[in-house]
Write a structure and sequence with these properties.
Blueprint: E1 9-15, E2 40-48, H1 55-66, H2 73-82, E3 88-92, H3 102-109, E4 111-119, H4 127-143, H5 146-156, E5 163-170, H6 179-195, E6 204-214, H7 216-221, E7 237-239, H8 244-250, E8 253-258, E9 278-288, H9 292-304
Parallel strand pairs: 5-6
Antiparallel strand pairs: 1-2, 2-3, 3-4, 4-5, 6-7, 6-9, 8-9
């Protein structure tokens, strides 16, 4: 489904290491400069309405969020594109028109992030929504507390209180600054959709966050250096999307689970020998929808502070 393209240019800096890179992509005879870390490049991104050609890029991002969960990601991607009046994909701004480099052209068409919301109450006729609802129930029963179990069961059994799955996914090296215009746009678009009596009037959001916890056992085995920080409670957790830590602070309840046994493309790329081993987790937040705008303001203050 086509729609007018919306653009919000953003100048941000990110790590030079590329998502999804693999040693298989480098020829054995090709000279490769040794990666030393802390490398940055300046890239301009913009938010656009999802369109049909974004299908594979969006599906890839959903895969790195859900990993091996039994979800029909193709149908979920189609749903996201079909409701392209709400939500944005992150793409690289137009490259130099005089450049005919095929790599530049591919980068310009690549999807680097997706911010949108899926109605888990109104779309129960879709297989992917049924699977998402069942996944949340199963995960909560296995990993949640009595409180989170009660909340999730109550929300998913009461169609009078619509629940939205807030998807805020992007490559790990894109900093939090980009989330502000994307979330602001999403909030405005949901309000416009509600004015047209479309099903975007939510009472709660469910957010699936990616985070990584320091493998303290591996850290202890390494030789300690003079400049290495001590392992403390403050530096044990790394949020893939840093702004989601603010969401966590405002959540009504939460639960988490380890996904160490599953492939996570979000941490692919080049790594240094001394990098601390991190174990991937997913944390599921239950967030009152009325808090979204104030949270966006908090995120804005965070990224500008």
């Amino acid at each position: 489904m086509s729609a007018p393209i919306k653009k919000r240019a953003l100048h941000i800096e990110g790590n030079a290491s590329e998502e999804g890179s693999s040693s298989d992509e480098v020829s054995d005879t090709e000279d490769v400069q040794e990666y030393t870390g802390q490398e940055e490049i300046q890239v301009e991104f913009e938010g656009r309405s999802p369109i049909d050609s974004d299908f594979h890029g969006i599906k890839q991002l959903l895969h790195q969020l859900f990993l091996k969960a039994h979800i029909n990601l193709s149908e979920l991607t189609d749903l996201i594109i079909s409701q392209n009046y709400v939500g944005s994909v992150v793409k690289q701004s137009d490259v130099d028109e005089e450049s005919d480099d095929e790599d530049d052209d591919n980068s310009a068409n690549e999807v680097f992030g997706i911010t949108t919301v899926v109605n888990l109450t109104d779309k129960q006729n879709l297989e992917c929504v049924q699977q998402l609802r069942q996944l949340l129930v199963d995960l909560c029963r296995e990993h949640g507390t009595d409180q989170s179990n009660a909340v999730v069961s109550s929300l998913l059994s009461n169609d009078a209180r619509p629940v939205g799955l807030l998807i805020n996914e992007r490559f790990i090296n894109i900093p939090a600054q980009i989330s502000v215009p994307l979330l602001e746009s999403l909030s405005k678009e949901m309000k416009k959709a509600k004015e047209k009596n479309l099903a975007f009037d939510f009472t709660y959001f469910i957010v699936i966050c990616k985070l990584y916890k320091m493998d303290t056992e591996s850290t202890k085995k390494k030789k300690s250096g003079k400049n290495k920080p001590p392992v403390t409670q403050e530096n044990e957790v790394l949020w893939s999307n840093p702004e989601e830590e603010l969401f966590d602070q405002e959540a009504d309840c939460r639960f988490e689970f380890c996904v160490k046994g599953e492939t996570d493309s979000g941490l692919s790329g080049q790594w240094l020998e001394d990098d601390t081993a991190m174990t991937p987790y997913r944390r599921i937040l239950i967030l009152n929808a009325s808090k979204l705008d104030q949270l966006i303001q908090r995120v804005k203050e965070y990224v500008t502070g």
